[in-house]
Amino acid sequence: MPVTLRTRLAAVAGGLAVTLSLAACGNGEETTPQEPAQGTAAEETTDGATDAEDVHNDADTMFAQMMIVHHEGAIEMADLAVEKADSEEVRSLAERISAAQGPEIEKMTSWLEAWGEETSPMGGMDHGGMDMEGMSQEEAMAELESLSGAEFDQRFLELMIAHHRGAVDMAQEELDGGENPQALELAQTIIDDQQAEITEMEQLLETL
Q1: Residue 189 pLDDT more than 70?
Q2: Residues 134-188: pLDDT tens digits?
Q3: Widest CA span of the chain, in angstroms?
Q4: Rounded-to-integer distance, Cα 141 and Cα 139, Å
Q5: Beta strands in 8-146 (DSSP E)
Q6: Over 90: is that where the pLDDT of 2 sits?
Q7: What is the dihedral of CA 114, 100, 131, 145, to 10 degrees?
Q8: CB 172 within 8 A of CB 105
Q9: Which of the 8 DSSP states describes residue 87?
Q10: DSSP string covering 125-186, please?
Q11: Which member of 11, 46, 56, 89 lies 3.0 to 4.6 Å from 60 by CB, making a disulfide possible if both were Cys?
Q12: What's the chain's Rg over C-alpha atoms?
């Protein structure tokens, strides 16, 4: 009888051990499904952010296309001023304009490519913000190249002020009609930065 009792007790103990072991495994498995659920939520958030960045309308497309061309014109003028400016202040301003607008061109180009849009505007450069005192980019460059010394500095500042005002107008049109969050943010940055530079150039003109 003692042997039989010990045998039964051993069997019971063994059964309890198996039950506890299975319960422990079961508890571990209950948390496993939560991991994919968290991953799915993260993926949905990421997808949502991507969708928001891809949202754009015709105003966003036009803004990016035309501002690229506009910035290219400003850089062309600024690079010429770096070579020809008589005043160190004018040369320094020109260097800052070129350095700031180059990365913005790259940013807007990447947006257009991501949106599946052309990086150049249809119909060329015919736009209200493109001319300077009634002059085209080519006419402005030809005049600047013919000047030197303080005369160059004065004309460069006058034309760049007009050029910046065109950019501010274009950026305001984006704020009024655009949809893409990144494009709207850049439009506001352009307004703030170029208005500040207009003030700086007007002050420089007074010192020449």
Answers
A1: yes
A2: 899 999 999 999 999 999 999 999 999 999 999 999 999 999 999 999 999 999 9
A3: 121
A4: 5
A5: none
A6: no
A7: -130
A8: no
A9: S
A10: T--TTT-BTTB-HHHHHHHHHT--HHHHHHHHHHHHHHHHHHHHHHHHHHHHH---HHHHHH
A11: 56
A12: 33
* Residues β-bridged to residue 135: 132
User: In this structure, what token pair is assigned to residue 143?
Assistant: 């005049």
Any idea what DSSP says for residue 45? H
Cα distance between residue 97 and residue 7, in whole Å = 92
Lowest average pLDDT, out of 4-18, 118-132, 134-148, goes to 4-18
57: tokens are 């309308």
Helix (H, G, I), strand (E, B) or coil at 56: coil
The type of residue at 53 is E
Q: CA nearest 50: which of 58, 42, 38, 61?
A: 42
What is this structure's pTM?
A: 0.73
| Count of residues in the chain | 208
What is the Cα–Cα distance from 143 to 160, expressed in whole angstroms?
Answer: 13
User: Distance between CA 194 and CA 95 in Å, rounded?
Assistant: 14
